[in-house]
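User:
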Amino acid sequence: MTDTVTTPGARRSRRADAGGDGGRRRRAGRGRRLRRTIGLVLLVLLLAAGGTAWWLYSSLDGNIKAVDLNQAIGDDRPQKLPTTGRNLLVLGSDSRAGSNSGLAGGNPGGARSDTALMIHIPEGRSSAVAVSIPRDTLVTRPECLDTDGSTLPSRQRVMFNSVYSLAGPACVVKTVEKMSGVRMDHYLEIDFAGFKDLVDAIGGVTVEVDEPIRDTSSGLDLGAGSHRLDGTESLAFVRTRHGVGDGSDLGRIGLQQQFLVALLSEVKKQDLLGSPSKTYTIADAATKSLTTDSELASLTALADFARSMKGVDPASMETLMLPVRYDTQDPNRVVAAEPQATELWKAIRNDTAIPESAKKSPAHGG
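Assistant: Predicted structure:
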């Protein structure tokens, strides 16, 4: 038998080898624990971020109020356009309840559709036409379902803006469809308090004023020139009528149309992707005061609709007023002027260019 002599160097070498294997195992174990820890932290962060995103989405989605036009109106409606053109009825509500009660220049007696615009987006979506319907226009209100579910009978010679307060938005849509023969694909309503918050959220809107406007009723006092309006000033701008034209509703329609184009242009140039917090602030302000038809009553549907109109340049939007004349029985009211109104609605129904003759209104408010 041969004796094996172990030198001190060999013993140190074996300990080093054993230590190296153990060290590698210990380091590998620490590495796995660290990766698991990092993985858990990332998972928690992702879940938290996802939860926050879902909460934000649900919060904004839940802000939007909906009107089921198909159920409220039924089948008694014009046919859809044979083209891919779209029609949108936009109402500004002047309800004085709640947060609207402190806004200047309003009627505390109840809610009315202070501003009404029928926006036609032709096939191809490279341009748009906005037709203002004067609130003092005498119209025939069709038979509608009242807000309590009862039937409201048809009535002739009612003021257009009274339809909203008597029977709600679905009846306004039905009234516009009956008078125009144009089917409204969508409905959008914003109340005045929400309009104010929206303008403030985007940082104001710039308008050009040709002549000084001073209206003690709305509180608006602007000199000629360029003005950056905040939310309160913007409300006064679109509501003023005593400081422009003949002091009637017709005089302020031009200001409303001017502001609409300026507002759309301002929103379009906002760097929303570069500022998520600002995007949320704007979306929150908009959705809190928004009422739409049921097909638009979600962030997804609104985003899809907005993307479909991405090619429309607000600066190229044509703004018109429904051609009207002063009523022979009541000079403080107007009625649709013929044949201009018929020509206007026919062009929109057929998705064709509006003839110049259909743009001339005998009553124009100065």
